[in-house]
Structure formats: C-alpha cells, structure tokens
Specification:
This protein is an alpha/beta fold and 275 residues long. It is built from twelve helices and eight strands. The two termini are 22 Å apart.
Amino acid sequence: MHDPATSVDTTRFVELKGGAYPVRIEYQWLNRDRADAPIALFLHEGLGSIALWKGWPQMLCDRLNCRGLVYSRPGYGRSTPRRSEDKWPVEFLHVQAHDVLPALLDALKINAAERARMWLIGHSDGGTIALLYASAFPDSLAGLAIMAPHVFVEPMTVEGIEKARNTYETTSFREKLQTYHDDVDSAFYGWNDAWLNPAFLHWDITKEITSIRRPLLAIQGYDDEYASMLQLDSIKAAVDHTQLVKLEQCRHSPHRDAADAVNDAISAFMQAHRA
C-alpha cells in the first residue's frame, strides 16, 4: 500500500466551457503515479464534495490497485458555486451525466482507451449519475459500483429531503456542512430545491437504464432513510446482469456505515470483471 502522503495529489482546478457559463471544477488524483492502472472515478452524493469523501476513496483505490479521480460537481466544494438565481431543472442529474462528466474527461485528456477501462463509483445522486452515464455511453467505461442510488421518487425520499431542509434551517447542520463547501447554500438549495420540485415526483429513469451493458454492482442499506429496496429491485429488473448487495444495519451511506462490507463487495466485484 502506498503512503497516503505520497499517493494523494494536490487539489487542482480545470475550467469547463460550453454550458450556460464557464465553471471551474476542483479535482484530485489518487495514486497518480500508477499511470498504467485503470481509473476509479468517484461521484459524490447530493451534498457531497471531494472533502466530504474523506479518506475512503484512497483506501479503496489502494485495495483495488487503481488510480483514483475525485471531483466536486459545479455548485459543490470549491468548484464554481451555483448562481443564486439559478434553479436546477428536473433533469439536473442528466446534465451532470451527459454533459459535465464527459466535458471533465475531455478537459483532463482521458482518452477513449482509458475510459473503456474506467470504473465509476457513485453514492446517492452520484450513483444515479453513474447509471445515466453508463446508459448514455455504454462503451465508455469498464463497469460501475453504486451505493444508495435513486431511479425514481418514493414518498419517503421526499419526506427525507423535506426533513433535511428543516434540519439545515433550524440546527447547526448548516455550519457543519459549511466546512465542505465554499458556498454552502449553493450546494444545499441546489440539491434540495430540485428534489422538492413538484415536477420531480414524476422523475423515473428505469426505462432509460436498460441500455447499460457493463458490469453493475448496486449496494444499499435496509435502514436507508431516503429510499426503500424498491430502488435496487427496479435496477435489477431493468438491467438483469446487476449484482445486488443489501446490507443490514446500514443507512444511506454504506461506505461509512458498513465500510468493510462495501470494500469487500466492490473489490470482489471488480476483480471478477477485470480481465
């Protein structure tokens, strides 16, 4: 295992053009010196960032013998904040999967051969973005491992996000979250307003993901406060080759609540599919 002090790259920035306005993306390489190793690309949750992943991506990359790439999406971390007048559309996850992620790969000069060996590892909204990317670009990845993804909206999802808003506005949660974002309101309300948009109740990508061809591992905890196992079962129904892992005593963040089980599952899954 590499010394973390030498494995973790400094945080870097790259500008993406072509959208409504240019955005600066913060990103970080892990195990950058392993130039011939496949890339494990990490897609954070709806309130996440590079910093909020903490040490887990490095731990997993060391175990997988991969290079790692982590980044904060626009509106999060130290990336360009969402403008206060901008409301993210119902399709905001599609925008991230179809436009922002490919633009980032282009900007970082990750070529077609490297993308074909690339593994996507996503949590929550990041898991959904991984699914949407894999369905739109079915040959531009090696496979994906996702945790607590959403493919449609359940009543408990809306209830959980409404509760999060109340917690954000009435407790010290905003102050704690501010540690991980330059503009914490940009991060929180971008995510929260989008999910609580009444039009989002009809959002459903179960038919869209049927085009996924690459290996797919989906992980969720039985105690997830934002979704039921209907999410994983619907993914399996849409993509028959999906491998499911359902964890006891685990809430919405399996990599924190059940790190050993998650690391074991992802490691075994990728080893089985890496030729």
